[in-house]
Design brief:
Strand content: over 45%
Helix content: under 10%
Order of helices and strands: EEEEEEEEEEE
Number of helices: 0
Number of strands: 11
Distance between the termini: 37 Å
Radius of gyration: 15 Å
Largest sheet: 7 strands, mixed
Structural class: mainly beta
Shape: elongated
């Protein structure tokens, strides 16, 4: 499974960006897709995630500003980021959980994209 993320860049405070992450390869059943971010000196943290059924979860720090969505037909997840703040500056990584059927049931595998840099600065 390969994940190709795009959409990062430099934006002024209050601006917007839309991240995209397209999945390809041996995808059986996507359990969930999500976005994480990591800034220098900090641990990677969950930004937002969406299940195959469309249930979403957004970190408190981005609620009301960021929205995660997905296009199941394209195996693509999006993150619409509005009202960006300097503290949103980070490398954003997309994640996919692939549920693979085996003779013993289902095994879940987690995959990561290469990361895309978002810089919020005036």
């Amino acid at each position: 499974v390969q994940l190709q993320a795009s959409g990062g860049g430099l934006v002024q405070p209050g601006g917007s960006l839309r991240l995209s992450c397209a999945a390809s390869g041996s995808i059986f059943e996507i359990g969930s897709m999500g976005w994480y971010r990591q800034s220098p000196g900090k641990q990677r943290e969950l930004v937002a995630a969406i299940t195959s059924g469309g249930n979403t979860n957004h970190a408190d720090s981005v609620k009301g500003r960021f929205t995660i969505s997905r296009d199941n037909a394209k195996n693509t997840v999006y993150l619409q980021m509005n009202d960006l703040k300097p503290e949103d500056t980070a490398v954003y990584y997309c994640n996919l959980v692939n549920n693979v059927p085996t003779s013993r049931g289902v095994t879940s595998y987690s995959y990561w994209g290469q990361g895309t840099l978002v810089t919020v600065s005036s």
